[in-house]
Amino acid sequence: MIITTTNTVEGKTITAYHGLVAGETIMGANVFKDLFAGIRNIVGGRSGTYEQVFKDARAQALSEMESGARALGANAVVGVSINYGAIGASDGMLMVSATGTAVTLG
């Protein structure tokens, strides 16, 4: 399945629109990740732990969106937007949402 942030796919024609599809995921970081990220914040450098949480959350949201598109009979999703947010007590949870338009490409 083609998933793209553009509204068209070069060399392809959109033959049918199936509607909006979305995928959402909410992930929490445990206390140990928070502790090590806090230390990393003090000494500097990248936080591989949090980077992996972001990557996993994004992959899950995109996978859920793709599944929704397949269920509608689409073979592509165009105009994809990925949004991130912090929610919950003390913003302790990461929310990732992916939305796009399910289409059939000819």
From TrEMBL:
<dbReference type="InterPro" id="IPR035439">
    <property type="entry name" value="UPF0145_dom_sf"/>
</dbReference>
<dbReference type="InterPro" id="IPR002765">
    <property type="entry name" value="UPF0145_YbjQ-like"/>
</dbReference>
<protein>
    <recommendedName>
        <fullName>UPF0145 protein GCM10007315_04770</fullName>
    </recommendedName>
</protein>
<dbReference type="Pfam" id="PF01906">
    <property type="entry name" value="YbjQ_1"/>
</dbReference>
<comment type="similarity">
    <text>Belongs to the UPF0145 family.</text>
</comment>
